[in-house]
Amino acid sequence: MARKQRLDPAIFHLPVEKMREGYYSDKYFVRTRELLLKDDHRPCVTMQVFGKSHAFLGGIDEAIAILKLCSMEWPELEVYALYDGDEIAPWETVLLIEGPYDAFAHLETLYLGVLARRTKVGTNTRRVVEAAKPKQVMFFPARHDHWLVQTGDGYAAHIAGAIGVSTDAQASWWGSEGVGTVPHALIAAYGGDTVLASKKFAELMDGNVRLITLVDFENDCVGMALKVARALGERLFGVRIDTSETLVDKSVIPQMGTFKPTGVNPQLVWNVRRALDADGFRHVRIVVSGGFTVDKIRRFEEQGVPVDMYGVGSSLFQGRFDFTADVVRVEGKPLAKVGRSYRPNPRLERVE
């Protein structure tokens, strides 16, 4: 039996005809397929796919969907694969495709690209989640890339352990929806009045939506956190600190001298936490965002900074996690370019 259930290929809404005709593929793969068909040459090959970095695999179900829906004859292929979220070692085979090469030659660009993108997002998210444990991580990088990547990126983050994503598209593959906070733009729309914007949110939004308010609009996180908490009481789930990396919050200025005072720093979080607790608002969570990376989260956790959730954005798109595909057997016999060879992986499972 399969270890896990794979996503239905239909969920990806692939442009099947465009993919089949090679519209999104490197031209040399398209021409290779054309040549083989013209020559009526159909060698049965074993295509081996691997990455070169330690990572957490993403995009495998999407790659399988591409093979199922966009190959010329899926029944001609035998496919073996790992699962989304699997931890993988450098050079470990993650996907094996066997069958007539012309049936899937035009798809290599597509499945390699999917694996590279989703593995990057999933691996970066997993590292952040592990650094923050047991604190929650909110996935907030949608604004840093093209909107078309949101659905798969959100799923990769979900598999990696992110507790929430910011758009409905990101949450669509597992039937959820985006989460968020009262943004700076809404505060501006109400004349820069954070309390009024928060009250309107509480009044007009579904009561089941968690109310988390940004409190750095006036660069006075302590004062604003207290004002909002006093105005909303138990309705306020949390406050979010997002101070610009070029500013020093009002509460931090008198404490400057022995630490980097700009942006969201440990002292600022402690100032907000102590003020809320002293005023009887221990229930109010603190969310931090703005420039958070794995290293910054680790520093906060090592210092015991009283953060309840981390909002992480652009750092989740950094780095490269490339994948490579090689023909390693032809007609069942070893045949590969020098330096590459068939590497069986007992963890691979047959895809039905």
Task: Explain the overall architecture.
- The structure is a single chain.
- By secondary structure, the protein is α/β, with parallel strands linked by helices.
- It folds into two domains: 9-120 and 319-350, Alpha-Beta Barrel (nicotinate phosphoribosyltransferase); 132-317, Aldolase class I (TIM Barrel, Alpha-Beta Barrel), CATH 3.20.20.
- 34% of the residues lie in helices and 17% in strands.
- It has eleven helices and 14 strands.
- Strands 13-12-1-5-3-14 form a six-stranded antiparallel sheet. A six-stranded parallel sheet has the order 7-6-11-10-9-8. The protein has a two-stranded antiparallel sheet with strand order 2-4.
- Helix 3 runs antiparallel to helix 4.
Gist?
By secondary structure, the chain is α/β, with parallel strands linked by helices. It is built from eleven helices and 14 strands. It has helices at 16-20, 27-38, 60-70, 108-132, 150-160, 168-171, 184-189, 194-204, 221-232, 266-278, 294-302; strands spanning 44-51, 55-56, 78-81, 87-88, 93-100, 136-139, 164-165, 211-214, 236-241, 285-289, 309-312, 323-330, 333-334, 349-350.
Provide the descriptors you would attach to this structure in a database record.
nicotinate phosphoribosyltransferase; 6-stranded antiparallel sheet; 6-stranded parallel sheet; elongated
Write the layout of secondary structure elements.
Elements: H1 16-20, H2 27-38, E1 44-51, E2 55-56, H3 60-70, E3 78-81, E4 87-88, E5 93-100, H4 108-132, E6 136-139, H5 150-160, E7 164-165, H6 168-171, H7 184-189, H8 194-204, E8 211-214, H9 221-232, E9 236-241, H10 266-278, E10 285-289, H11 294-302, E11 309-312, E12 323-330, E13 333-334, E14 349-350
Parallel strand pairs: 6-7, 6-11, 8-9, 9-10, 10-11
Antiparallel strand pairs: 1-5, 1-12, 2-4, 3-5, 3-14, 12-13
